[in-house]
Each structure stands twice: as structure tokens, then as C-alpha cells.
Design brief:
Number of helices: 9
Helix content: 25-40%
Strand content: 5-15%
Oligomer: single chain
Number of strands: 7
CATH superfamily: NAD(P)-binding Rossmann-like Domain
Number of domains: 1
CATH topology: Rossmann fold
Strand order of the largest sheet: 3-2-1-4-5-6-7
Radius of gyration: 19 Å
CATH architecture: 3-Layer(aba) Sandwich
Length: 281
């Protein structure tokens, strides 16, 4: 039995941004087992709509909405349409985010006599860095501005942000993404304090290294053996393995269900096999 079925969120509305992505579409389909209504928001409407249709075909209630999380007026229009379809938001999951190759270095360490084609820190592109910070930080702040207005004073209202291992210790090669996720963790704590008197909790989950169709080729070679970078991850993960998307679900359900976490506010919960606790020695 799906563990989400143990949580009764009937008549609640869960709004998920980035819901067309691999991870958030998976979580949306799992959360549908709580009997909550699910609004899937994504710029890629086709991907979000596919997940919504799967939910509906399985007996859940869901609808997809084409949404640009960086356009305030568009988010407001989507909020108004959702209100017509389902009512107002009870739980907001800010799942929109991502990195950009223009904000990523090719090397872990700067060295002398590097090949001219190697992208170093000095070659990072301003537009790429802005894209990463805007998508991750503003892409969580703006939807919160819009949907939290309807959550004020609601029983069980809460916001879940998606942080990362990068927020605890920056990973090599991805300075913009690491900084943006650190900002998300800080924003989570800020929101938790700011909304503490009006009944909205705010927490975050920080996924460790998960295997998905999106990153499988980066973690394993054609023979199914871990790549060099994958071996570094495994060496620094005390549990000695990668996580699975299913293993985020329990943490997420714990945080969104007030019967389990009514007094939990402002935490960033690692789901990482011990990665963030391990110093490497």
C-alpha cells in the first residue's frame, strides 16, 4: 500500500510548482493518494498535464496549469483559475528550480596551464548565473507571495521548499546553483518566522543524491558502473548508496501533515543517507 494513503488530506488543495519535472511529477502522483486535490504548475504544460492525467486515471483529482514562476501576473492568473477549479491553496510545494550549463565550471579546481576550451570560474556567464538564481529563488518567492495570501489562518496550511545538499556545503563546479539553494534554506527559515503568527508553517527538504532517468547517464557508464563523480558521492555517503525518489516521500508527508508535524517549523530536513553529516574522515 502506498504510504501516502495513511495520510488523509481530503478536501485539501496541494499546489506544486515545477510539477512537470521528474521529481515533482513523481511526488504529485504519490501525494494524490492522500485524497488531496493536486494542482500541477509548470512552464512545460504537456509534462504537467501528462502527470495530471495519470493521477485522474488512478482515481485522484488533479489538473495541470501552464505557469511561469518568474511572472507574477501569470501566477496570479493561475491562482484565480485554480480557485475556480478547486478552491484556495492549503499546501504549497515550491519545486521549480534547476541549474544552467553557463553557470557551471568544467573543473573542480583552478589550475595553471588549463586548456583554452575549459570553462573556468572566470568564464561563468552572467545571464546563466541570473537564470539560476531567478529560477530557484524568485521562482519560490513569487509563488509564495501569491498563494500564501489564501493560506493565512487556514488550519494545516504550510509551505514546503526544495533545498539541496549544496545548501549545506557547496559542491564543486556549480557555484550559482549552490548559492541559490543556500538562499532557499535561508528563505525557508525567514518565512517560518514571518508567518508564525498567522498559522502557516514553512519547512524544506534537502534531497541527497538520487538516481533518476535525468541523471542516470551522469552517474553510471554504459556498463552500469559508477562514474568517477558517482564514486566520490558514494564514498562520502555513509550509507554507501544513492537514494531513490520514493525515499523523499516519507519526509514530505511528515512535514505537510499537521497531525505529525504541527510544531515543526523552519527546518531544512536532509534526506541524504548521511552525506551532510560526514566530514570525509
Amino acid at each position: 500500500m502506498n504510504i501516502a494513503a495513511n495520510h488523509n488530506l481530503e478536501n485539501k488543495l496541494i499546489v506544486i510548482t515545477g510539477a512537470g519535472g521528474v521529481l515533482c511529477s513523481f511526488l504529485a502522483k504519490q501525494l494524490a493518494h492522500t485524497k488531496a486535490n493536486i494542482a500541477l504548475l509548470d512552464l512545460n504544460f504537456e509534462a504537467a498535464d501528462k502527470a495530471a492525467k495519470e493521477i485522474n486515471q488512478s482515481g485522484g483529482k488533479a489538473k495541470a496549469y501552464k505557469t511561469n514562476v518568474l511572472e507574477l501576473e501569470n501566477i496570479k492568473e493561475v491562482r484565480d483559475q485554480i480557485a475556480i477549479d478547486f478552491g484556495t491553496c492549503d499546501i504549497l510545494i515550491n519545486g521549480a528550480g534547476g541549474n544552467n550549463p553557463k553557470a557551471t565550471t568544467d573543473n573542480e579546481f583552478h589550475q595553471f596551464d588549463l586548456n583554452e576550451t575549459t570553462r573556468t570560474f572566470f568564464d561563468l556567464d552572467k545571464s546563466g548565473i541570473e537564470f539560476v538564481f531567478n529560477l530557484n529563488y524568485l521562482g519560490s518567492l513569487l509563488p509564495t507571495q501569491v498563494f500564501a495570501k489564501d493560506m493565512l489562518g487556514k488550519q494545516g496550511a504550510n509551505i514546503i521548499n526544495i533545498s539541496s545538499m549544496n545548501a549545506f556545503t557547496p559542491l564543486t563546479k556549480i557555484p550559482a546553483y549552490s548559492g541559490a539553494k543556500a538562499a532557499i534554506s535561508n528563505f525557508t527559515q525567514w518565512l517560518a518566522v514571518y508567518f508564525s503568527k498567522v498559522g502557516i508553517r514553512c519547512n524544506a527538504i534537502a534531497p541527497g543524491f538520487l538516481v533518476s532517468n535525468q541523471n542516470r547517464a551522469l552517474l553510471f557508464d554504459t556498463e552500469g558502473k559508477p562514474t568517477d563523480r558517482a564514486n566520490k558521492i558514494l564514498t562520502n555517503t555513509p550509507m554507501g548508496r544513492f537514494g531513490e525518489p520514493e525515499e523523499l516521500l516519507g519526509a514530505l508527508l511528515f512535514l505537510i501533515d499537521e497531525h505529525y508535524s504541527a510544531f515543526v517549523n523552519g527546518v531544512v530536513l536532509p534526506v541524504d543517507g548521511g552525506f551532510s553529516a560526514y566530514s570525509g574522515v
